[in-house]
């Protein structure tokens, strides 16, 4: 048990999928895992453990933003002992090439700008990339399964609603650097994994494209996550 997680010490598997939204965590556990059991209900940050093809796998809710994400992942890595974390998140596309409903895998992450992404100051600046084996496996498996997916530089922001507005002009510097998508937790994931010597990968589904103005509807979200979840589970099983 930790301040934010009521699970017993051995309730989590060695690999944990991380979802921002508790509804996504529940849907994944109930749709993809055999014999899922809920191991954390505190604050509705639902955590589940079950099996996939005979391997024990967990799914944990992490909430929105680095502050929330770092509470759940710190407690997982420090207390419950998993060593592989795979984020299965949502992101905004910053280029038409990050097509709506396709997957983006972050092969490197930077802060959106100098003042965004406070976590960048707390952890070693070298730890801003995923585990190379997890990245390679994900790209191989996506190819085998015919899942539309693009790996590249992503940016991370603490801010969803920016005073400069929600248009693409806010991301001009990120676009100029070649970033293909934005989310709010991948920087925290890569840095805390580096800090604890764990392996990490961030896979996100493009739910809106800031460059083209296209959006998905929340109502289609769970079905939209089928490819991302299949891919994450394939990577988890091969680990
Ligand atoms: O869908 P999740 O995993 O929460 O990820 C994205 O969605 C939230 C913003 O709507 C942020 O947490 C962002 O990173
Ligand atoms: O952080 C995020 C996630 C999804 N879509 C966005 O525009 N930003």
From TrEMBL:
UniProt xrefs under SUPFAM superfamilies: Purine and uridine phosphorylases
Gene3D superfamilies named among the record's database cross-references: Nucleoside phosphorylase domain (3.40.50.1580)
InterPro entries per the UniProt record, alphabetical: Nucleoside_phosphorylase_d (IPR000845), Nucleoside_phosphorylase_sf (IPR035994)
Domain Nucleoside phosphorylase: start-end pairs: 16-232
Enzyme Commission code: 2.4.2.3
Catalytic reactions of this protein: uridine + phosphate = alpha-D-ribose 1-phosphate + uracil
Listed transmembrane segments: none
Pfam families: PNP_UDP_1
Enzyme type, top EC level: transferase
PANTHER family: FI09636P-RELATED (PTHR43691:SF11), URIDINE PHOSPHORYLASE (PTHR43691)
Protein name: Uridine phosphorylase
Naturally occurring in which organism (per UniProt): Ollibium composti
Taxonomic placement: Bacteria, Pseudomonadati, Pseudomonadota, Alphaproteobacteria, Hyphomicrobiales
